[in-house]
Design brief:
Blueprint (H helix, E strand, L loop, with lengths): L2 E2 H8 L2 E3 L5 E2 L1 E2 L9 E5 L5 H4 L6 E5 L11 E5 L2 H14 L6 E2 L4 E2 L4 E2 L4 E2 L4 E2 L4 E2 L4 E2 L4 E2 L4 E2 L4 E2 L4 E2 L4 E2 L4 E2 L4 E2 L6 E4 L2 E4 L5 E4 L4 E2 L4 E2 L6 E4 L4 E2 L4 E2 L4 E2 L4 E2 L4 E2 L4 E2 L4 E2 L4 E2 L4 E2 L4 E2 L4 E2 L9 E3 L4 E2 H37 L1
Parallel strand pairs: 4-5, 5-6, 6-7, 8-11, 9-12, 10-13, 11-14, 12-15, 13-16, 14-17, 15-18, 16-19, 17-20, 18-21, 19-24, 20-25, 21-26, 24-27, 25-28, 26-29, 27-30, 28-31, 29-32, 30-33, 31-34, 32-35, 33-36, 34-37, 35-38, 37-39
Antiparallel strand pairs: 1-3, 2-7, 22-23, 39-40
Length: 348
């Protein structure tokens, strides 16, 4: 489907500078632009590509003024990045939605299947499981016994929702993610490690997106809870009995040990680790590869390092670390000078 610059400007509240009737049918990065594509510019580092791009339309911020001639039609908007997000959402919503149940899908006779669902070949639905209206399950997705999946949730290939677990509405579970596997619970004995049964569940609330090969463990007792609006990247580990607050986001390879509570609107960079039985306050931002060994009580902090400290203090500390070799040399030289002075004083 094609859209004119005039139509796009109407959708996102923009102003056209150039040909309002030029049409596009695809997206492209500004440096890889092609005729018939729409691109965007919101970072000054990419401005040079604006003057050479072959894209037919480029979204720019309202304050932007080109320094050279531009062949593309510009659409000026208050926030170019936000406008691109809106357009991508419109584009995605226009894709035809799959529907129907494959003859190769296995559905237990006691399971409940909603309306307008798509169950691909080799999907497996266990006893007494419930699949809500409009759900899409891709090949080899598995929903265990007594588990439930809310309306309009999409589960990609090889993702698993274990028995008794609950997934809310409008969630996205990417390929290979696992909801409700046993938590890492063992009791040390003289003969090795005895498994502690994990008899709780995992609950995923509405509008949660969970990345590929991410694991949310079930609770020992009670529930591990991922609250509404949380976004977890690929390869994230959420331990047993954790509670992740609404709208918190975590980048790849974050690991949260068991019985930890993370507040709302937190942001964790890649490879952040949080120790077990901690609480992290709302709106805490943690830089990549940082470690949190204890409870964070004050909301809204920006932390970095291991153990994580205030970001500004961490950067100051790193500046000192770079000077440590020179400081060590100076310290040794001072020691030698002091010893020499002692010897001179002892002569007297």
């Amino acid at each position: 489907m094609e859209f004119s610059a005039e139509m796009i400007a109407g959708l996102i509240g923009g102003t056209v500078v150039g040909d309002p009737q030029v049409k596009v049918n695809d997206f492209a990065k500004i440096e890889e632009g092609r005729p018939g594509c729409i691109s965007f510019l919101y970072n000054d580092k990419y401005e040079k590509y604006l003057y050479t791009t072959q894209s037919s339309i480029v979204l720019v911020n309202s304050s932007f003024e080109p320094k050279q001639d531009v062949s593309a039609t510009l659409i000026k908007v208050a926030d170019a990045r936000g406008a691109v997000t809106k357009l991508l959402q419109v584009y995605e919503s226009m894709k035809p939605k799959k529907a129907g149940i494959s003859e190769l899908a296995f559905i237990d006779p006691t399971a409940t299947i909603g309306k307008d669902v798509y169950l691909a070949p080799f999907v497996a639905i266990g006893p007494n499981a419930k699949i809500g209206d409009g759900c899409v399950l891709h090949p080899h997705a598995t929903v265990g016994a007594n588990a439930s999946v809310g309306e309009n949730t999409e589960i990609y290939s090889n993702a698993v929702v274990y028995h008794d677990c609950r997934v809310g509405k409008r969630c996205i579970l990417h390929a290979g993610c696992v909801i409700g596997a046993d938590g890492f619970g063992f009791q040390q004995t003289e003969n090795g490690y005895e498994k502690i049964p994990q008899i709780g569940i995992a609950i995923i609330e509405d509008d949660v997106e969970i990345g590929a090969n991410t694991c949310v463990d079930r609770a020992v007792m009670g529930a591990t809870v991922i609250h509404s609006g949380v976004k977890l990247d690929n390869l994230v580990q959420i331990g047993h009995n954790n509670e992740i607050g609404s709208h918190t986001v975590m980048s790849a390879q974050v690991g949260i040990a068991g019985t930890t509570k993370v507040g709302e609107w937190c942001m964790f960079g890649g490879q952040v680790g949080v120790a077990g039985q901690c609480t992290v306050a709302d709106k805490t931002m943690v830089g990549a590869q940082s470690g949190i060994p204890n409870t964070v009580k004050k909301p809204g902090q920006m932390l970095m390092g291991t153990p994580a400290i205030d970001q500004r203090r961490w950067w100051r500390a790193q500046a000192v670390v770079k000077q440590l070799p020179d400081m060590w040399t100076e310290l040794n030289n001072m020691k030698k000078e002091i010893e020499a002075l002692k010897k001179e004083l002892n002569k007297d």
